Amino acid sequence: MSTLAAPNEVITRALLRQVNVPGLDRPAALITLDNGFDHTKPNTFGPAGLTSLDEAITAALAANPAFIAVTGKPYIFCVGADITALPLLADRAQALEIGRLGHRVFARLKDSQIPTFAFVNGAAMGGGLELALHCHYRTLSAGAAALALPEVSLGLIPGWGGTQLLPNLIGIPAATQVIIQNPLMQNKMLKPKQAAELGIADVLLEPADFLERSLEWAAGVVRGEVTVTRPEVDKDMWAGVLYFARQTLDQRLHGAVPAAYKALDLLETAKDADFATGTAAEDEALADLVFSEELRSGLYAFDLVQRRAKRPAGAPDKELARPVTKVGIVGAGLMASQLALIFARRLQVPVIMTDLDQARVDKGVAYVHAQIEKQVSRGRMDKGTAAKLYGLVSGSVDKSVFADADFVIEAVFEDLDVKKQVWAELEKIVKPEAVLATNTSSLSVSAMAEGLTHPERVVGFHFFNPVAVLPLLEIVRGERTDDATLATAFAVGRQLKKSSVLVKDAPAFVVNRLLTRFLGTVFAAVDAGTPLEVADRALDPLGLPMRPLALLQLVGPAVAYHVGGTLHAAFPDRFAVSENLKRIAESGQPIVVDDEINTEVAKLLVVGDQPLTEEQVRANALDALAQEIRLMLDEGVVAEAQDIDLCMILGAGWPFHLGGVTPYLDRTGTSERITGQRFLPRGVASLAG
Predict the structure, then answer these.
(1) I need a labelling partner for 531 at 20 to 30 A (CA). Which of 337, 349, 463, 661 fits?
(2) Is tRNA-binding found in the keyword set (predicted)?
C-alpha cells in the first residue's frame, strides 16, 4: 500500500483498548480513531490510516471480546477519505486499489461473527459514515455536528459501501436524498435527530456521557436485553423512485454532474446485487471519476470553502477589532428583520431596529418573533434560548437609541442620497468609534461616506438573500475605511458564521456584478428576438442551480433592473439597459409560474428579428463572464481568481463541479480565447498537463 500514501498524510491511528463493561463476562474491544490533533483537524482515512484500522480489527478479533466498537476522538468520528491525496494517484489501477482497500477493511466489521458497534460521537461524513454503516449497530451523539455522504458534491460517489448499505438500511427514497439530493443542495448536512429518524442510527444519546451510555446500550444488546428492530425495506418502489430521481437530475443538471448519475446507477445495483458485486461496481465508478475534470473542480471548490474562506485574503489583524456589545439596524423591512434575527442569535447582544413609523417597526419586530417561534415549534430552538432572543430584539422610531451602539448597519432603500442622509443623521448620534455598515448591493461605499466627519468607519457589509441560508458576506473597503473598522467587520462576520471576502469598492462588487453581466447577455438575446424559453435553457449544460429566469425572479426584476442601471452608469459599453427587463419589472408579474414561463410576461416583450440559438446565447454568456472577471482582477476588486470562485459558490450557489466559475472557463478554453490567458495555473482545479 505504500505506493498509495500521500507524502504528507496525517495518519489517523486506530487505538485499541480493552474495556470492562458491567454485566459482561469478558471485556469489550474499543477502537478509537485519532490523528493526534484536536477537533479542528478531523480524522480522515488515507492508506496508512486504513492499515492501522485493519491491524486494530485483527488484534480485537484475536482477543475474542464481548463486542467490538469503533468511536472517534472528541467531537469527531471520521470525515472520510483523505481527499487531498486523490490528485496524487498516478493511474486508474491505484484508484481501484484505494477503493478495494477501504472495502476490504470495512467489510471485516460487517462480516464479523463478534457483534460490532459504531459509537458515532461526532462528525461523520463520507467514508466515516460508511465505516459506521458496516457495523452491526450504531449509537449516535445528539451533539454530532455534521452527518453526510457529501461525495457527489465533489464529483465522487460514496465509494466504500455507502451506495449499497444505506438504501438497504433506510430505504431507497431516504438513501437517494442523503446520497444525491443533499449534496446537490449546497451540501446539506443531516442533524443527529434527522439521522436517527431515518434509521441511520439505532439510538440517539446525549453527548455529556455518550461513551458510557453507548457501552451500556451495547452490553444490553449483547445480553439480549435490548432488541434492535428495523423496518423492512420496501423494494417494490425502488425502480419508481430512481426513475423520478433520474428525471429530476435531467431537469436540474442536464448531464452536467457525472457523479450524480453514477450514484444513481449504483443505487439501482443495490436493489438485487450481492454486496461483493455492488462494492466492485463502486470501485469501478470511483476509478472512473478520480480522473475527471469535475472532481478536480470539486476538490478545488472544497478547498476554497474549507480553507480560504476561513482565512480571508487581505483581512487586517483581528487584534485590531473592537468589541461589539450592541447592534443598531436602520430599517425594519424584510432584509432588516432577517439581519436583526441573525445578529441577535449569533452575537447574543441587544439589537434594535428603527424605521419611519411605529407600524413598520412593530411589523419588523413581529417578523423576528415569528421566526423564533417557528424555530421552537420545529424543535430547532429551546424555549429558554427563544425567551432570551425575544428580549434582545426591540424597535424604536427614535434613532437616539443608537447612541451606545458599537455597530450600526443600514438596510434602507437602494438610493445613494437616501443612504447618505441616513449616515449624516446618525453620525450626530453614535459614538465616534462606532462602525457604520451598509448592506448596499451595488452602490459606492466611498461615495456614501463623503461629507462625514469620520468616513474611516464606514464599511460595506453585503449579505445575500436569504440571509440565514447563503453563507457569503462581501466586506467592502471604501477609500477611507481604516483597519480597525475593517477588522471589526471581519470579526462580526466570523461571529455571524459567515464566510467573508474582502472586496474593493467597485460597482456591484463581485456576485451582483457577474450575475448582472451574465443575465444581461441573456436579455440581450431576448431583446434581439430569441424566444424566452430558448434563452432560458441555453445555460443548462453547466448544471447551474437554477435557470436565468428563475434566478431573476428570486433576485426580483426591479432589483436586477436597478443594479443593472448602476452598472450601466459605470460601464455603459458592457452593461446595457434592457427595455424588456424594465417592462417586466414594472409589470410586477412573476416571470415563472410552476416552473413554466409566464405567458403574460412574454406578451409584454418587444423583440427584434435576429434570434440566437442556445449555443450562441451560452457562448455569449461565457465570453462575457470571462471578460468581466479578467477586468475585475485587473482592477483589484478581489485579491485573486480564487476569491471570485468563492463568492460565486457561497453567494450565488454555483456548483462545486464547476469550481465556481473560473475553472470551467479555463477548462472550456473560454478564458484564453477571450482574455489571452488562463485564470488558474494548469493542474489547479484541472488535470495537470
Answers:
(1) 661
(2) no
